[in-house]
């Protein structure tokens, strides 16, 4: 009976996905007109891709055996200088030594990587004949390792060849890369599940990245004990990334309203738009965030809460890794890329930093108030999951209710009071808008079309939250 109940529960979640919103109505269950893209302007299919995931307390001890099973002879292990002294890296290195694995360590990964730091890691990878890559760290480490693996396996490629258009050339990756095992130490980015690697492109002071299923890790080893080393604010900011991954993918433009329709499956983007399978993962992640995030931030020894948030990061990663994100993430990139002097508590870095999760969540109240008219049921559903009483709420008020719910959630977790509190003013809005324009890969998945003037209003509305 337990198995039957689980099936019924999943079917009910899928039924919820077929809401009556303008952006989602009649989208998931139509079978006609889906033959080829020669007669369609929008896509008609979606596909699911994710790394293999292994979860368990202490499971990092198995990585040496995994490398033996892969026949690894020369492993590149990437991490950052702070993590290199902490238990997660120590556990992995002990496992490698126990299995007799030859390896070299690169610990110069930059928190919030840049094109310069990517190139440094790529140079390290090219200077040796590594046959397997291992990343131990948060999203910055895992993304850097993905890039190093990619370009080491494509030594003749120009750096911008695989970088997302319009900053890069956005070429499809057709050659093979080496196996990559990711060991995440934060509960946020979900990078262990996705084929996305994000970095700051310094010449334009804008974030961009590489997005291809080809670079997703072969295996993600999710060991909840590693999250116990996260400081309080790192846990908070990582959790906000999970929150926005779930919210944005759940409210994204449906996959069969995304254009253009790819002429070849290799051209179908990793971020495809909301779809019934991603909806299940994203919505479940949102439930876990609602139940456990505050506990995980407030008590670093709460293994149940931190373990649950680690899994939520994986769940949301599978969701957004196939559906995509939209305005919160698109707008976050210039917020992080144009940082002036802000110093982030809990991060052992010497450069100014607005952590990724913080840069994403600061615009969330304004963004979801803006997007709600296109799919009010989903926005109300999200607000209810996060604790709002929606029994008497009108669909027209969905945006305001979700925005207020998010503000209360952020206030209780002591989040900075808007963009103004991390060093921005209204004078910076034009630069922030300019930095958002190149992020079309994600912003075009917003369920509501937007202009530069709309973006300016959203940034302005996010200068103060409370």
From TrEMBL:
EC number, UniProt record: 1.1.99.24
A single Gene Ontology CC term: mitochondrion
Record keyword Metal-binding present: no
Recorded superkingdom: Eukaryota
Single Gene Ontology MF annotation: metal ion binding
Localisation per UniProt entry: Mitochondrion
UniProt keyword annotation of Oxidoreductase present: yes
Record keywords, A-Z: Mitochondrion, Oxidoreductase, Transit peptide
Record field: catalytic activity: (S)-3-hydroxybutanoate + 2-oxoglutarate = (R)-2-hydroxyglutarate + acetoacetate; 4-hydroxybutanoate + 2-oxoglutarate = (R)-2-hydroxyglutarate + succinate semialdehyde
Residues in Fe-containing alcohol dehydrogenase-like C-terminal domain copies: 273-463
Residue stretches making up the Alcohol dehydrogenase iron-type/glycerol dehydrogenase GldA domain: 51-224
InterPro entries assigned: ADH_Fe/GldA (IPR001670), ADH_Fe_C (IPR056798), Alcohol_dehydrogenase_Fe (IPR039697), HOT (IPR042157)
Principal place of residence: mitochondrion
Family matches, as Pfam families: ADH_Fe_C, Fe-ADH
Enzyme's top EC category: oxidoreductase
PANTHER family given in the database record: ALCOHOL DEHYDROGENASE, HYDROXYACID-OXOACID TRANSHYDROGENASE, MITOCHONDRIAL
Protein family membership: Belongs to the iron-containing alcohol dehydrogenase family. Hydroxyacid-oxoacid transhydrogenase subfamily.
Protein name, UniProt field: Hydroxyacid-oxoacid transhydrogenase, mitochondrial
Source organism per UniProt: Seriola lalandi dorsalis
């Amino acid at each position: 009976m337990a198995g039957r109940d689980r099936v019924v529960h999943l079917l009910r979640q899928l039924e919820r996905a077929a809401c009556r919103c303008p952006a989602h109505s009649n989208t998931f269950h139509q079978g006609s007109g889906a033959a080829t893209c020669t007669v369609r302007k929008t896509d008609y299919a979606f596909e699911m891709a994710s790394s293999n995931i292994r979860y368990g307390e202490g499971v990092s001890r198995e990585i040496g055996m995994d490398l033996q099973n892969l026949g690894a002879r020369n492993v590149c292990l990437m991490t950052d200088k702070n993590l290199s002294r902490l238990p997660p890296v120590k556990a992995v290195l002990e496992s490698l030594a126990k299995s007799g694995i030859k390896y070299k360590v690169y610990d110069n990964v930059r928190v919030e990587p840049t094109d310069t730091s990517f190139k440094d890691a790529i140079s390290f990878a090219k200077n040796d004949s590594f046959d397997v890559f291992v990343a131990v760290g948060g999203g910055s480490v895992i993304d850097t390792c993905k890039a190093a693996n990619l370009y080491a396996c494509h030594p003749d490629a120009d750096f911008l060849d695989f970088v997302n258009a319009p900053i890069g050339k956005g070429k499809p990756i057709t050659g093979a890369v080496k196996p990559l095992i990711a060991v995440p130490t934060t509960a946020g980015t979900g990078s262990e599940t996705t084929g996305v690697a994000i970095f700051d492109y310094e010449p334009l002071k804008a974030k961009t990245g590489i997005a291809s299923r080809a670079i997703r890790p072969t295996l993600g080893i999710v060991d909840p004990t590693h999250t116990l080393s996260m400081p309080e604010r790192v846990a908070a900011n990582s959790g906000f990334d999970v929150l926005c991954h779930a919210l944005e993918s759940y409210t994204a433009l449906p996959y069969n309203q995304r254009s253009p329709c790819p002429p070849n499956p290799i051209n179908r983007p990793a971020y495809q738009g909301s779809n019934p399978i991603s909806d299940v993962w994203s919505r479940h992640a949102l439930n876990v965030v609602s139940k456990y995030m505050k506990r995980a931030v407030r008590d670093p020894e709460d293994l149940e809460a931190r373990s649950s948030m680690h899994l939520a990061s994986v769940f949301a990663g599978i969701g957004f890794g196939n559906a995509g994100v939209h305005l919160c993430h698109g707008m976050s990139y210039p917020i992080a890329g144009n940082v002036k002097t802000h110093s982030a508590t809990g991060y052992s870095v010497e450069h100014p930093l607005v952590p990724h999760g913080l840069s994403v969540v600061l615009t969330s109240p304004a963004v979801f108030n803006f997007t709600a008219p296109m799919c009010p049921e989903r926005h109300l559903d999200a607000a209810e999951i996060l604790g709002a009483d929606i029994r008497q709420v009108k669909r027209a008020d969905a945006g305001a209710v979700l925005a207020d719910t998010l503000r209360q959630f952020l206030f209780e977790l002591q989040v900075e009071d808007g963009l103004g509190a991390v060093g921005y003013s209204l004078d910076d809005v034009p630069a922030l808008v300019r930095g958002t324009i190149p992020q079309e890969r994600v912003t075009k998945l917003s369920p509501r079309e937007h202009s530069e003037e709309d973006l300016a209003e959203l940034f302005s509305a996010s200068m103060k939250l409370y």
